[in-house]
Queue: 2 jobs
Job 1
Amino acid sequence: MEPNRTNVIRFASSMYSYTINVEKIHNALNCLEIELPSWGFANTGTRFGKFLQPAAASTIEEKFSDAAQVHNLTGVCPTVALHVLWDLPYGVGSVPDVKKLSAQFGVRPGSINPNVFQDQIYKHGSLGNPDPCVRKAALAHLQDSAEIAAGVGSRDISLWFTDGSNYPGTANMRQRRKWFSEGLGKLHDHLAPDQRMLIEYKPFEPAFYHTDIADWGMALLLARDAGPKARVLVDTGHHYQAQNIEQIVSWLLDEDMLGGFHFNDRRYADDDLTMGSIDPYQVFRIFHEIRHFEWETGKRADIAYMVDQSHNLKAKIEAMIQTVTTAQELYAKAALVDHERLAEYQRRSELIDAETCLKEAFSTDVRPAIREWARSRGLPEDPMKAFRESGYLDRITTERRERNAAAVTSYA
Ligand code: LRH
Ligand code: MN
């Protein structure tokens, strides 16, 4: 698309003159949807305690209400991820309530997250547990979750397992892999034709010696074994410090096995901090690998962009708005990379110029173009300011303060 006066802003620097292609930014924003986690609105903590927020959501109605606030202010969060035990206490029986709330608040149920880690029976694992009765119970919950997903119209069943061990010699890791393969295969066969199962890996926590699905390779092999409706889910917080996450993303894209992301940020381990708060360039590099793949292949990657954070200190709804606007900014910057020019520099191993293609895009201030995009969609230019002026926070604080004050805070 030839830049003309209307869709570009010209910039001339000593080394380079470049234009901001506003249309490219708007097109990118038009196709970016970000799924919010219901649990991101609830009072959560660490093992050392939980600091209660009077406005926190605890009922599924309140979580839909808060998610709808973020969607109405940003226009890009039409779905909310649900965690079965936390949001659907009656399992399939909770489906009618969820559908009613979805209609009431204009936000659809997103990925369905089974929970085979909280119940006491899962002490030694779920699908990987040496006790066949426990494996059977876990599979039943996973299959129920697939039915819940079908009932509420969700496509993705998002799977995370705490299975593993804390001490060497206490688990047969090869045997447990076989049990996982067996269980995931049975779940796969239980899925509806349009459903997907996303397998999330995590190197450690709560298991501290081995985790059965510890990295992308293990998740990929298990997904392959399970069948064509299985994909890998990349939680950005589930990597060792020095791991190159965007390389993992590029391989999963190449294998057509990348199903989705849980975005958050971290300084040390699975800190679940707000996206882009510690290393925004990391998120940019991930978005760049996806956009470059889509440019090269001419096909849109079928990825679920989801947030998975627990806001232990920040005000929860504001932290979610901050996360979504940060994701939009970093995605818009990645959309500005000149793929032709980059491919040419890569082909010629022009290192400085190739790197500068990314740096130029990353250092571009896309906020004016995003404000223009928001205006064009009848959305507030500054969602955070609009939220603070809406009075919503005061209203829910009054409604929820008493109930939240009574909640348990201590770990033990
Ligand atoms: C595990 C995890 C998983 C969720 C949980 C809330 O660390 O990332 O995706 O189920 O957080
Ligand atoms: Mn996650």
Job 2
Amino acid sequence: MSRLARRALLALAALGAPWGLAAGPAAAQPFPARPITVIVPFAAGGPTDTVTRLVAEAMGRDLGTTVVVENAGGAGGTIGAQKVAQSRPDGYTLLLHHIGMATAPTLYRRLAYDPVGGFETIGLVTEVPMTLVARKDFPANTLAEAIAVIRKQKERLNYANAGIGAASHLCGLLLMTAVDAPMTTVPFRGTGPAMQELLSGRVDLMCDQTTNTTEQINSGALKVFSVTTKERVAALPSIPTSAEAGLPAFEVTVWHGLYAPKGTPAEVTQRLSQALQAALRDPRLVARFAELGTAPVAQAMATPEAHHKFWLDDIAKWKPIIQAAGQYAD
Ligand code: ASP
């Protein structure tokens, strides 16, 4: 074949010629045709990472492909979110993020990506309680005693968080506002590494999802003062709610959702949503979530539409709170 004829055939193939000279355009292939990557915008070993690994494994079973988890922590989750917003919108790069998706649009006034318009929603995943925990030798045994220590020692105490906009940051702000005393905040790339510092006593206090604290609490490696929910948590039945322990203003839960970059085809986000729903029905996942103090959302919430509405409502809920506090990340 002449070089010219070969070039003409290759050009036709690149246009997706239908007679099988080359694979057709990617959109014509069944989805998924290869492994999928889910970005966790926090360090490995933390609560968002734990939830994502369980969901990824179960989704992979439904999709018939591997769902790889990649950690891109830092800046309260905005580094990982940016990575996904700027990825190809083909369904092969996803983001599993938490409540920080609702606070970043107001907390961060300068971002290199669009924190709302840069994403397609796939579905909500779970809403996780938080716990206020302290190093094992912290000089308090109840929330009232801990508050007295915080009011007395103030900035001499180190409060660990995962950066501005992280759930641990929001929870700390609520606590410090409720007790009217500041502490020194020490940011990490996620509360996985922060937990190691707390266990070794190098920081004093942290507020974190039960998906990272339940096992440490139950083994006695940490002190715990309250769960930040209205009701007690089944996996931690003896731990009082903040209201029971005397601080009703200290209530926060951490919702998580799955996102794709803006422009991902609707049939792809629908297929991913189906896989997410299947994952959230998976008995192994449900059992592990329960051990970690949480539960999957109702199936109707694991859809692009329900997730999108919930997310926008939550952005609107946090906006006036952040603006009134006047505390921005930049
Ligand atoms: N729990 C962290 C937070 O404070 C994030 C993480 O490491 O999963 O948002």
